[in-house]
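Dissemination and training. As part of the outreach component of the grant, students in the summer workshop were shown how a complex can be specified as a set of sequence lines and then modelled as a single object. The example used during the hands-on session is reproduced here so that future cohorts can follow it. Participants entered these lines:
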Amino acid sequence: MTKQQLIDNIRRKRSFLCVGLDTDIAKIPQHLLDLDDPIFAFNRAIIESTAEYCIAYKPNLAFYESLGSRGIASLEKTLEYLKAYHPDQFVIADAKRGDVGNTAEMYARCFFEKMHFDAVTLAPYMGADSISPFLGYQGKWAILLALTSNRGASDFQLMRTAKGDRLFESVIKASMQWAGDDAIMFVAGATQAEMIADLRKIAPQHFLLVPGIGAQGGSLRQVVENGMNRDCGLIVNASRSIIYADRGPQFDAAASQAAAQIQSEMDEYLREWDL
Amino acid sequence: MTKQQLIDNIRRKRSFLCVGLDTDIAKIPQHLLDLDDPIFAFNRAIIESTAEYCIAYKPNLAFYESLGSRGIASLEKTLEYLKAYHPDQFVIADAKRGDVGNTAEMYARCFFEKMHFDAVTLAPYMGADSISPFLGYQGKWAILLALTSNRGASDFQLMRTAKGDRLFESVIKASMQWAGDDAIMFVAGATQAEMIADLRKIAPQHFLLVPGIGAQGGSLRQVVENGMNRDCGLIVNASRSIIYADRGPQFDAAASQAAAQIQSEMDEYLREWDL
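and obtained this result:
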């Protein structure tokens, strides 16, 4: 999906919400457990009940990998379903990968060609040649961890370099030499809203993937005030607060309602920003 | 596996070699492709022909994930095989993961409880709470990326911080507050041999996992001179130069010979260091 298509989707659907498909077999409703593939059944129901309120889905691969080959099969079915029935959704592999050249190439082929993800999250620690294999695909995206939403973000990401930048700022500046804002996005946690403004000074045009609202406690308004640009420039993720809004038989209606509520708040912000 | 067991294995087998199971369906001998599970068949043959010369195996998960659920099934079978027939081998998940707390916990359970790996490689960018879930398991190890063997290592890992350290040195110092040398190892690329000496000044007791000899061109002698300590303290990995030593029907004999040659060189170094 190109940047313009993403922007068009946001304007048309009045939403910049991403639903995190962090599907945990221990947390899905009891009645699904008798089905052949409970993980896929849950995902399909969540997608059907939230698709009108969001523009993106983001499976965190850990949840699928932790179930072994069976979990990966559920993920593959979820992706095929999205591609067949919701081709306008931007689908992000939350994989946080980062490996040397030939292994990175293998991951890129896996996520972009085999599984048809639009984007993949990547850890920048290993540098340019761990990222560049993801940058040669038209309409596909590398989303670099810059400023994450967890407490440990302060251990290294906020460390001052000898040049006076914080490490996350060095990561952003370096990556801007590798590709433009049509191929790279950055992760910026909602729990670090005031620092999103600093990030915007370096990367005014880039889209940001913002986790941390909902269960993690970040404020959507603060994210918008610090991070929105004239293209919107934000994809804001919520996972647990939507997919586990209710854990009984009405889970899908509850998810729908939770997503609709965020979408309606987003619509207001988009109007405030004349979008 | 505890640190003492690992040291005992190294002394007994006169080897600190790790064989990297970077098994690529496009590179394995033709005659295996007709089998039910060519990846597992290849791994089993490689393990049988190299086990006497090495003390560890390291599947890079990218190679299995890139084949989807089928690839993960091959990996699971390989691990079950190792556990059943070679329980004295130290088995490393080369996963380079790094994610927030609850996801990291899920990965730790997956690699240590479900798949019975002894160790997992982790990217440190997200800080303490992305690593600590891996540190509570007796006899299991977190192997942190410190100084990698690729060119991009210089982009961030060698960056000077305001305190005067390079980033990889800050990572090592910080992680030493999280756990001791019985739970943490560091990745240090053989292509950076002179910097391994700097790393040793900070972490004299830790085991180092050293990729980059063989196909990547690092020198085993230089690694030993800069990195060996009185426990050996090194696990040196070779992948392609062993598993693809010959790509015809005699691949296993060729792998055996390639591993034996490295082991014999390692035996010499161990004797030079009175081990």
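The beta strands of chain B are 17-20, 56-58, 90-97, 119-122, 141-147, 184-188, 208-210, 234-238. Students were then asked to discuss how this feature might be tested experimentally.
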